[in-house]
Specification:
Helix content is 70%, strand content 0%. It is mainly α and 138 residues long. The model has no long low-confidence stretch (mean pLDDT 84).
Length: 138
Amino acid sequence: MNRATDIPTPEQARRARDKVLANAASTGRRPSVLEVARALGLPNTTFRRQFPDIAREIGEARRAPHTVSSTSPAATDHARLVARNAKLRRENHQLRQNLNLAVANIQRLTLTVHKLRAELEAANSVSRIQPRTQFTKN
């Protein structure tokens, strides 16, 4: 089997690229070089080697800001998930800040209580009795 004859023409590759880009735009997903390669029946590396300009175009389209039609259900679901994730990240960040603040306050209060107990014991001439240690028989 001659591999050179199995390679699609540049026109076929461009048609496959256009189809994948159109599908990505309508579904709200990002286009993929692998998707184009599979549509042509080629391994990903072979496609990239034979059509580097098309692979580069798809990469640029993948990195471009995500724009989808607002009437697509996938677009609205995606936008809702993106907004929800952003909200959850903000809430998570705020909760972590609150937790760190609470830990710092607990530490400060613990030191204050220890200091006040020591002052109280000193003022009342209270001596601490150490708890008995239990001895074990050998």
